[in-house]
Amino acid sequence: QGNMAFTGKYEFEGDENYDAFVTKIGLPSDKIEMGRNCKIVTEVVQNGNDFTWTQHFPGGRTTTNTFTIGKEADMETMGGRSFKATVKMEDGKIVAEFPNYRHTAEICGGKLVEISTSSGVVYKRTSKKIA
After folding, report:
1. Full-prediction pTM beyond 0.85?
2. Radius of gyration in angstroms for the set of CA atoms belonging to the chain, rounded to a whole number
3. Which of 10, 45, 49, 54 could form an SS bridge with 64, CB 3.0 to 4.6 Å?
């Protein structure tokens, strides 16, 4: 469990259960289409317990969440809504409770593995390290 375990740039590799999950959390269909097999690049800068988590979408749109483990932070959902959350670290995983889903992120074999769960629907996204 190195301190800088998350720092890096990761490119979308694959996902499971995307449609079931985004339908469950109520994303509008245009956003669902936009996000399907989207080559999102996730850039993580970790400095101790401080994180800057940026997602670069094709076409130039960017979402950045900045947070400190254990402190409340202003965050943004997949659908672009703002909310407050306290991000925790559990067994080397980053855990955040979004308004209608629970999100975890971990580094597994050099890949960024993110799992979002909403009412029993589990969405898994895997990204490979590119930098």
Report:
1. yes
2. 14
3. 54
Q: What is the CATH number of the domain that holds 46?
A: 2.40.128.20
> Positive or negative, the Cα torsion across 96, 97, 100, 102?
positive
d(CA 10, CA 17): 20
Task: Kindly state the DSSP code that residue 80 receives in the 8-state scheme.
Answer: S
Does 2 reside within a domain? Answer: no
The answer to whether residue 3 is domain-embedded is no
Judge whether 1 lies within some domain. no
Give the Cβ contact number of residue 37 at 10 Å: 9
Output DSSP code: residue 34. Answer: H
The count of other CB atoms within 10 Å of the CB of residue 95 is 18
Assess if residue 52 is contained within a domain.
yes
Which helix (H) or strand (E) segment holds residue 22: the answer is: helix 18-24
For position 1, what pLDDT does the model report?
Answer: 41
Q: What is the domain range of residue 49?
A: 8-129
Q: Please count the structural domains in the chain.
A: 1
How are beta strands 121-129 and 8-16 bridged, if at all?
Answer: antiparallel
pLDDT (tens digit per residue) in 75-106: 987 667 899 999 999 999 999 998 889 999 99
